[in-house]
Design a protein that fits this description.
Strand 2 and strand 3 (42-48) form a beta hairpin. The chain is globular, with a radius of gyration of 13 Å. The chain has three helices and five strands. It has one domain (10-52, 63-110): HIT-like (HIT family, subunit A). By secondary structure, it is an alpha+beta fold. Helix 2 (55-61) crosses helix 3. The protein has a five-stranded antiparallel sheet, with helices on one face. A motif (Histidine triad motif) lies at residues 103-107. InterPro entries: Histidine_triad_HIT, HIT-like, HIT-like_sf.
């Protein structure tokens, strides 16, 4: 069921505490943690604690949480001190776009010039 944890989802397992992650921020509805295969000096994933396969489905079903996801991405950028130098937010949607974990998430990338495709 949409929004419910999925037993085969890596990110749902991280939210449940079953798999460790380097958490940098957490709210009641979001979790932000460092990517295990970073593509930039700062590479953090911000995920909703509810399960939706992609950002579009999350936004359609629970727009408040989608908005919180973006706000938290901005807070992560501020915490990581990459706001002034610039940062990139990326939502990959579908395997053809590079999505490998089908739980909505946004990549926060920064710490170097973002003038190339990264994720």
């Amino acid at each position: 069921m949409a929004g419910e944890p999925q037993s085969d989802c890596l990110f749902c397992k991280i939210v449940a505490g079953e798999i460790p992650a380097t958490v940098v921020r957490e709210t009641d509805r979001t979790l932000a943690f460092r990517d295990i295969s970073p593509k930039a000096p700062t590479h953090i994933l911000v995920i909703p604690k509810v399960h939706y396969p992609n950002a579009a489905e999350l936004a359609a079903a629970e727009p408040e949480i989608a908005g919180e996801l973006l706000a938290e991405a901005g807070e992560v950028a501020a915490d990581e001190k990459i706001v002034e130098s610039g940062y990139r937010l990326i939502f990959n949607t579908g395997a053809g776009a590079g999505q490998t974990i089908f739980h909505a998430h946004v990549h926060v990338l920064g710490g170097r010039p973002m003038n190339e495709n990264m994720v």
